[in-house]
Amino acid sequence: MEEVAFFVGAIGALGGAVAVVALRNPFYSVLALVVHLVSLAGLFLLLHAEFLAAAQVVVYAGAVMVLYLFVAAYVGSNEEPLWEPIAGQRFLAPLLAAALFVELSVAILGTGLKSLGGEGATIPAGFGSPAAIGELLLERFLIAFEAASLLLLIAAVGAVVLAASKKEATEVPRGR
Amino acid sequence: MAVEWYLVLSALLFAVGASGVLLRRSPLVILLCLELMLNAGNLALVAFSRSLANQDGQIFALVVMVVAACEVVVGLGLIVAMFRRRLPLNVDEIRSLRG
């Protein structure tokens, strides 16, 4: 049963990822990423990370993707030109990615990590529940938690500064 | 399921995201591919957290999600600013630092 759920989630995540790269319209790429994120949330549930799965669906697939969709709709769906700045880029890039995958797999499976092999340690009750995660965040990882909130504030202010329409902004003609 | 399955899937997702960054030229899609790579890292973190029965990995994944959200917000702000200034939305054409 667990194997079936894993492979369903893995196929969804992988199909979504490939569709993000392959689809030519950015709007469809964003929708494919939503499929990828929801499948990944299912895999998180299999790994007993319930809070993380919920945060993934609510924050990522919900809020962040809506932001992406708004921007994709705002700038319009311009198809990418077919010319290649580097000759053969369309064949070299997947080749490089395949080499990266092989290298990563060899590195992962070749290590002598204790956690590899077997089903993993038995997990205590309440593992990955909101209560356990919240307790860790507010006790052991309080500084990381506060730094993350400060980072979010800085990013929000920075985005407002970047995207604010300035009346005196010099218009640069397109195609320069 | 053994943890290797999750790790190999994570490596595969990372490679797909990296190929997207190399292939695509729209800054919006490049941001999406960065998300793919960050999520692949998250999957590996959560897989190790499960196999070691240690929740620190999940906190790490949560912080990665926060950083990814910040990166998205700033990146999308840049894209909107580029669109407003009528700059081409193609990373090959905007490679000089001078305005």
Structure overview:
The complex is a heterodimer of chains A (176) and B (99). In chain A, helix 1 (2-22) runs antiparallel to helix 2 (26-46). By secondary structure, chain A is mostly helical. Helices cover 69% and strands 0% of the residues of chain A. The longest helix of chain B has 29 residues, at 56-84. Chain B is mostly helical and 99 residues long. Chain B starts with a helix and ends in a 15-residue tail after the last helix. Chain B has one domain (3-84): Helix Hairpins, CATH 1.10.287.3510. In chain B, 77% of the residues lie in helices and 0% in strands. The chains are: A mainly alpha (176), B mainly alpha (99). The interface between A and B is large, with 93 and 75 residues.
Helix and strand arrangement:
The complex is a heterodimer of chains A (176) and B (99).
Chain A: H1 2-22, H2 26-46, H3 50-75, H4 89-110, H5 130-139, H6 142-163
Helix pairs in contact in A: 1-2, 2-3
Chain B: H1 3-23, H2 27-52, H3 56-84
Helix pairs in contact in B: 1-2, 2-3
Brief write-up:
The complex is a heterodimer of chains A (176) and B (99). Chain A has 176 residues and is mainly alpha-helical. Chain A has helices at residues 2-22, 26-46, 50-75, 89-110, 130-139, 142-163.
